[in-house]
Write a structure and sequence with these properties.
The chain is globular, with a radius of gyration of 12 Å. The protein has one domain: 2-Layer Sandwich (Alpha-Beta Plaits), CATH 3.30.70. The protein has 2 helices and 5 strands, in the order E-H-E-E-H-E-E. It has a 5-stranded mixed beta sheet with strand order 4-1-3-2-5, with helices on one face.
Amino acid sequence: MAKVRYRVLISGRVQGVNFRSAMRSQAISHYVGGWVRNLGDGRVEAVLEGEKEDVEQVVAWARHGPPAAYVADVQATPEPYRGESEGFYVRYAEWS
């Protein structure tokens, strides 16, 4: 299977509803590496790496999110695979 990397931006009511923790659980259950963090503008950003089918399943989950979330938009942009993610991490916000 092909390995892929996606940068994902999720907007809507996705902060404050444990979205990052739920996304981490989904990624781990699909053997997807990477990270997720809140952005200062209210969106959530994630980088997902792994087998194409597994990463796409996590992106599909992000379109709905946990029950308390309202996901308005999900933008998944392919990037060159780097193979640098050996786990899945929740990062703190980097406010600018």
